[in-house]
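ping. complex inputs:
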Amino acid sequence: MSSRRVYMDYNATTPLHPSVQEAMVRDLEIFANASSMHEDGRKARGRVEEARKAVAELIGCGDNPEQIVFTSGGSESNNTVFATMFHLGRKGPRRGIITSAIEHPCVLNAAKWLESEGFPVTFLKVDEYGKLDMSQLKASLGPDTLLVSIMAANNEIGTIQDMAEIGALAKASGAYFHSDATQAVGKIPVCADDWKADYLTMSCHKLYGPKGVGALYLRKGAPLEPLIRGGHQEHGHRAGTYNNIGILGFGQAARLAKEELPEYARRVFALRNKLRDGLVAAIPKVRVNGHPVNVLPNTLNLSFPGAEGEAILLYLDLAGIEVSTGSACASGSLEPSHVLLATGVGPELAHGSIRFSLGRATSEEDVDYIIEQLPPIIKRLRAMSTVEA
Amino acid sequence: MGDAFSWLYSDVVKDHFMNPKNVFNPDEGFEPDAQGMTGNVKCGDQMLFMLKLKDDVIEDVRWKTYGCASAIASTSMLSEVVKGLTIKDAYNIKPDDIAQRLGGLPDNKIHCSVLGDKALRAAIDDHLAKTGREGAFRNEGARIICTCLNVSDRDIEDAVKQGARDWEGLQARTKIGTVCGGCKKEAEELLHEYVHIFAEE
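pong. complex structure:
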């Protein structure tokens, strides 16, 4: 094992920003129930409301922070939207659900659940770069469309969709528009209004905050059926005692994400491109997955023909480099990355894919270290491979 | 222990993964007497096993794989174990034996480790065919799955190789499970496994 650790899996999760950790530790003694009327309760609630304002500001709706509903994370936020559609679709004339083939499993599986309940569901195709097929979207929209749910940026390949255009089309058809912006928030500018979103999903642990906290942006007037019923918290949208320390951590993470975004994006994008150029120059026949321009600044997805992804990942791990792969062998299923398959790269390139996701702490030295360590690993795996690179 | 790798694989697996034994190297000039290939790149794993033989004894082996850490480590281990064995004994090695020697494998990785074993048997079958004994070991080491009709795991494997892809297809070829049906669950698991290894295109 190498003593050097290079973490390149920030799309999986991020460490706490030191300033978030500081804020959380400082207020750990605030234990009171944020719904209690007494002074300690009001103090706890104050932190929650400050956080709500900061999260609202991160997605450009700081004037209406009440549009933010705190949840346990991205999966809950997404499931709440789909559960709401289940209730609306049972009562109303609109039942059509439109989403994409490259969504996160929590959206895909929620959509499949609606399909099993008899809702017509369309999984839109994407092109070789992971961009949504807009003509298929236009053709699929109709007077019976209930929801359009499209992720803003893909977690595996980083491709960013044309959200304003998609939102405008969805709204023009009279459908609700939801976006899973879990990977976009904190990495690119996100404005719920510009996208005409009715619902927007966020997760705190992807932006240097704690795990177990997320949010759902809910446009004023958009319907919401609670997934968790109980008390009157969050205007009845989401019951359960406030996770006030987690939520205040989210607030601080949101403040920092907004403040640091331009500098962060500029810096990690330069490092990401350096990593891409270095690896493409040092290793023959590398395929760069995802969109060449409309891509998250921190995400680099590469395929190495002739080498299997889980083996690459574990050799990198032994060298202290932490990444993820689209290989079936790493997922526990027999299918490789559904995202890469949807871009049409073919199973072999999907099995041999590696995602590098950079972050705040990534340094030039980290990038140099990978450019030094990876080429001999690929060379070695290709030498023992039954498949020509 | 205390090693970050250990939660996933044993130290023995790790050692075979880091330093796989008997990997084919084109510069060595290894001339196999028989070879067998199994698996499919589309499924993310493929294995080639090559044998050097004398009087039905395995003198030396080489292998190549497009596969994960489990496939690499288990085939490395297998390649050490089979040297010096008769082809009949080698044919009867069970994937479980290899997994045990490796100090165990995670449940979802067992199927990756059977690839080496299948490729080895394909290589031995190749040798048998070349020496006019095609299919001679068909029932070696076979395990009866359907006790009513005496259908073995090898019969299921053969049925898949001949085109069976689902339970009905398997029954049409082997009559398996048509009496008491008690073997259906186990047979379906094997069917799924063999379809993955031999048939997915």
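Chain B has a mean pLDDT of 87.
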